[in-house]
Amino acid sequence: MPPKQPSTPGPLQTPSSASGTTVGTFSTPGVPQPAAMPRPSNPQSYPRTPTTPGGVHAGTGGPATASAGPGSAIGSGIVTPTTPGNVSGTTPSTTQSTYTQADLNRIVLEYLLKKGYSKTEQMLRMESSNAMGSTPSPPSAINDSKTSNGTILKSTTDDPQLYIRAYVSLRDWIETSLDLFKPELRKLLFPIFVHTFFYLIQKPDANSPATSLARKFFDTYSGDHSILHYHDLQLLSGLTLPEHLQENETAKLYRQNKYRLNISRTTFDLLLHFLDENERNGGPVTIRLINQYIDTNVTPSRPDRNDSRNQTLGDDEGIPGHITGRETNFNKQSVRLGKFPMDERMIKEVELRLKEEDNRSQQEHDEIGAAPESKTLMEEFQELHKQEPEEDAPVRDILPLPPFKGADVEAEIAIVKDARSRLKVGPIPASLPSVCMYTFHNTYDGLNCLEFSEDSTLVAGGFADSYVKVWSLKGEKLQSVIKGSTPSPSKRLVGHSGPVFGASFSPDNRYLLTCSDDKSARLWSMDTYTALVLYKGHNLPVWDVTFSPNGHYFATASHDQTARLWSCDHIYPLRIFAGHVSDVDCVTFHPNSTYLLTGSSDKSCRMWDVAKGTPVRVMLSHQAPVSCISVSPDGRILASGAEDGSIILWDLGTGKQIKTMRGHDRNTSVYSLSFSREGTVLVSAGADCSVRVWNVKGGSTAPSSVDGVVGGIGVASAGTTTSSGAADSDEVLANPISNGIVAGSTGTAPGISARTAQKQSASTVGRPTPVVATADQMAAFMTKKTPVYKIKFTRRNLCLAGGAFMGTS
Questions:
Q1: E-strand stretches of 395-530
Q2: What is residue 63's DSSP assignment?
Q3: Could you please report the per-residue DSSP string of 394-435?
Q4: Chain segment 738-753, per-residue pLDDT in tens
Q5: What is the reported pTM?
Q6: How many CA atoms lie within 13 A of 28 on its CB side?
Q7: How far is the CA of 371 from the CAs of 363, 365, 366, 367, in angstroms?
């Protein structure tokens, strides 16, 4: 399977400005454009006439006269109406018989619009609308339709192909519009799709049976709406005959009620302008459907791309009393986000060991006369695991786990010791985290992913040459337990037959999981540095893999649009999580291990119940594919990063968006996210060669400054510098680099991404577009030419980061 390629940039549709001027379609070479909706598999199925926004359609008359009959459109500059003072071969009587009042109004309106006289044009529209009198009853399929501005549009055909072209034309225009207007316009597309489908069932094509044309239309374009309207699409998918429209309850609901939508004035004017100029390609058909079946509430406000309400239907939108298109209703399912209860026997064993450690420590302090620790290990453990369970804590029996072992007790004791020695980081400048950066040299664009172990002693990298390499962060040589093995600065793990895209260490640091383009995942021993188990089940390349917090289960994310749950002692998947309509790019577990969270190229995040295998949360707001996700230690907040550089925080309890944070260069991916142990600070790493620190609890989406500069000084780690000798040409040097650069740099040329870059392209060329950072960005640490692949908070709140140096390329 070849690496995943980026979407082909499409033309950028620039909407009409406030002054009424219109800019035509253009494309900017070298500037990435938003990915469009998937096109039909057979684009020749339905003929459609390309439209040029801002262009003028010529009339059907000759050079001296123009026909105002049905189906024609008169453009400015084609015909000049005769006036008494003009010298013309046309008599006044001929002029009166050729032009109606609506035609004259249209000519003048087009002239005013072309010259940019927006206020005069709006005034004339209002006056002409009043002069037309009362609005006629909802038009039928063959009657004239009148827009809200009084302009009458005529059509002499009820050809079903015209309805298909009208929908396709509107769909394509929306997907090439500016991102600012897309969310509102996309909400309009679903009711147009539904009523177009109904019309095709009622009015079959003369050259094609009714079922084939309507069914072909439904199967081709229903995928555009499967995320928000999956339930309604399932109920409508069985409609094939006109009699079904009279019997199906969902169909009757849509036909007997108007679909409510809130739309801003700017977006509505842009839509009307497009439909006016798209008359020959079904514009009047779309206007007819809007007038008859959609109740548009035009608001004076301007659209806001950061407002999550623009992405989905609000409480006052849609069919009254009908739940559709609102993920908030789906997100009302009950979830248990509390901590997973620990085994009572293990608690007693850990407490016994901690008491022995406290007594030994007390004796040592008494011997040397030193002051005792401010908090004993026993007190720290009781604080981490409160005796009274949380109200929303899951039941322990819901997740089958093997009996605890002595290694689990030792790991828990190490966690308690690290928690007592933890540095507290917060939103104030004095408590910003320290960042220790590891730069990998001589990778030759082959390093795809990085992963740090839980105890911060090992780092693993996956390479395009199908192998995995492990280094020690302590400066020690790695020694296998196999007799006769030679210690070395790094260990190479060979077994995959394709590029390695993801890696994950087990919580006890004894095992490593990797995933590859060969559609498999492998489990490696960190004692022998050999492969133990091969897991096969996916049909396409596996992009990501992660261990659960308990270490018994793990999950994979694949190009086959599914995530899968595995157990280390089974070679087949236990659960298949299907629901995304594109690649599942990233996956992570909830801290209590009972939920799985996924991010996808369909621009959505989902939370799945591990026990049931069903989704319990769907989160939609991203404008680009989701590239990474992370859950806060308390399990209440999800952070998701996208390929457009944006980061969104979500409340997992309600499934609602908390805020959007911007600071990474536009159109550069966010590769990794990590929360501090308190959950108050989030760090992100991206292709713009930066590590950025964010305030989780406070801040807003307002820009922090005019030029986007946010102050912040990096604190270098005081740890020991580790270096692995370059024994051969493919050896990688790992050197911690401290960053003390003030944030707000316009950025350097982005390098190759970790896993995402391998799926997108071999390299990224061009200077990224800087953005104005939002107020919740506290600091930014810039590297020179090293895209940061991985960022992770240790158990003591030190921030580890790593990336591959891109050199001068």
A1: 435-440, 447-452, 458-463, 467-472, 490-494, 500-505, 511-516, 520-525
A2: S
A3: PPGGGS--PPP-HHHHHHHHHHHHHHHTPPP--SSGGGPPPE
A4: 333 223 332 333 333 3
A5: 0.64
A6: 9
A7: 11, 7, 8, 11
